Amino acid sequence: QSALTQPPSASGSPGQSVTISCTGTRSDVGYYNYVSWYQQHPGKAPKLMIYEVTKRPSGVPDRFSGSKSGNTASLTVSGLQAEDEAAYYCSSYAGSNTVVFGGGTKLTVL
Amino acid sequence: QVQLQESGPGLVKPSETLSLTCAVSGYSISSGYYWGWIRQPPGEGLEWIGNVYHSGSSNYSPSLKSRVTISVDTSKNQFSLKLSSVTAADTAVYYCARHGAYNSGWPFDYWGRGSLVIVSS
User: Contact at 8 Å (CB) between B116 and B108?
Assistant: First the structure.
């Protein structure tokens, strides 16, 4: 069971859109529609932003959206705002009652 | 509102056992859901450690399985983590969290604030 692969960094200007990828395998991301995304500001606990690939918990702005193609899931943040600057982590159910996280992507709002 | 709070020693000696407890309020563990532990070494990413159900049934990360025990105490509405034979590599912020519905892929919908544990002599 290996960690999911995310780019270490991403950036965009206010108002722009940015997409963060999360690559797994046929045993996790590719097999299950159970990808979640978390936002983490420095010194804070992660916050659930997306679950089941595309669903948003109550209170999460619709600027955040998720998708999946094959073994790669993606998080898109549209209309970037300063408060979106944070680290983003993907995770996936990996079978056999286990969960795997990605290495994280630091999003910078220029 | 579901709230989780980690507690335990902030300093553990190498080769000893790390022990943390997560107290849950606003929700009865006996009502359902799995309850999990996640850690984050300083400056690094998240790592899933394992989880436990109110029945005591538990699941662990394959990479930590030989050293981890997660248990639950429904009478106190809390669950605990024990990690044995620790080394400096186990230094991390340890979070407890609630897994959401299993048929939603177990997303972590409520998190504690985290507890920093340093392994050092």
Answer: no
